[in-house]
Design brief:
Organism: Obba rivulosa
Helix content: 25-40%
Protein name: F-box domain-containing protein
Shape: elongated
Order of helices and strands: HHHHEEHEHEEHEHEEHEHEHEH
Number of domains: 2
Distance between the termini: 17 Å
Radius of gyration: 24 Å
Largest sheet: 11 strands, parallel
Structural class: alpha/beta
Mean pLDDT: 78
Length: about 350
């Protein structure tokens, strides 16, 4: 699996001996090749030999030992790391230097190992740099215990959290809440009672919420608890995604948009009927929905919504329909929807790869 260890965006460091002739550069860039321009602006000439090691070649797996040696030997470079992405086998890359990254350094952290290492997970979740992380994403091989999962919610400056785990989290409880957390995206193997529990705990502060499972949808007797939590806690949501690999026994989200007047993005799989299109708020910009195998697709409802958009009565600008299977007879109907989208100025697309659809934003 390829490795990616990135550094980006140097913080403004004020030095008395800053070279005045160095030209200004953009304040932020996604490419490591530009990091040297920031270094030239902020450090003295005597530091340049060490700073020159900060380069794109570090992202190559073969150069991981160079990165490790540099971070271990050149302390002042550690505070320059802003975006950190680790996607590799933990046994093949030296990563002990992660523990040396100071607080108030890393802003975005993504960890995607291909094997589980409990000691590495524990030490990483205790590392000082995690206290400054705003955006945190971790995948299935990083987390195995409730304590580790709880630690993912703990960084005091956390704004968005994306978690993929196959572990049993039915009994998971949050012990503390970070007030700055406004975006939660959770992908589990099966539907879990932890979904409504987290909605109740975090809902009043969330702007975007994504609850997904790779396998089973909730059973009928589990749906009321989730709906109650959504109704009570998330009226300020701007983005809502609820999706499963299998469809629920009956749709249950038709009235949810009535409770979300600020909703801008909505994705649902097998959770709605034609009525949902009548209830979608005018603020909604992006709608992604599924043609569920056990319910007919509500073409009349989406056509009425598109006509609202064409008259300027709502902000809808994009519609995506997921089709797990499609027949020639179906295709003509979706082509008509596409034509209507074009006539009303709404972008239209449909997808057939369910796995890509599920993991697209994770």
């Amino acid at each position: 699996m390829p490795a990616s260890i990135e550094t980006s965006t140097i913080a403004p460091l004020l030095h008395a001996d800053r070279t005045p002739d160095v030209p200004d550069c953009p304040p932020k860039t996604p490419w490591n090749i530009d990091i040297l321009y920031h270094v030239l602006r902020e450090v003295s000439l005597r530091d340049l030999p060490a700073a020159a090691l900060v380069c794109r070649e570090w992202t190559d797996l073969n150069n991981a030992p160079l990165l490790a040696r540099t971070m271990l030997k050149v302390p002042h470079l550690r505070s320059l790391v802003r975006v950190l992405s680790v996607k590799t086998g933990l046994q093949s890359v030296p990563l002990s230097w992660l523990q040396l990254l100071p607080e108030d350094s890393v802003r975005e952290f993504e960890i995607e190992p291909d094997t589980y290492d409990g000691d590495f997970a524990e030490s990483t979740l205790r590392a000082p740099f995690l206290r400054s992380v705003r955006h945190f994403k971790c995948t299935v091989q990083f987390l195995r215990t409730h304590e580790q999962l709880r630690a993912c919610f703990a960084p005091p400056r956390l704004e968005s959290l994306s978690i993929v785990t196959a572990e049993d989290v039915d009994d998971f409880q949050l012990t503390s809440i970070t007030p700055s957390l406004t975006c939660l995206r959770l992908l589990l193997w099966d539907y879990s009672p932890v979904f409504p529990r987290l909605v109740n705990a975090l809902g009043p502060q969330l702007q975007r919420l994504e609850l997904s499972s790779i396998s089973d949808a909730p059973f009928d007797d589990e749906i009321p608890e989730l709906i109650t939590a959504l109704k009570k806690s998330v009226c300020q949501l701007r983005g809502l995604t609820i999706r499963y690999r299998s469809a629920p026994d009956s749709p249950y989200l038709d009235t949810i948009p009535l409770l979300l007047p600020a909703l801008e993005d909505h994705i649902g799989v097998g959770t709605f009927t034609s009525a949902i299109f009548e209830n979608i708020p005018a603020s909604l910009c992006t709608l992604t929905c599924d043609r569920c195998w056990n319910f007919p697709y509500p073409f009349d409802g989406i056509e009425a919504l598109l006509m609202r958009a064409g008259r300027g009565e709502c902000n809808l600008c994009a519609v995506t329909i997921f089709l797990e299977t499609i027949s020639p007879a179906d295709l003509s109907s979706y082509t008509q929807i596409g034509d209507l989208c074009r006539d009303t100025g709404v972008q239209f697309s449909f997808q057939q790869d369910w796995n890509a659809y599920l993991y697209e934003d994770f």
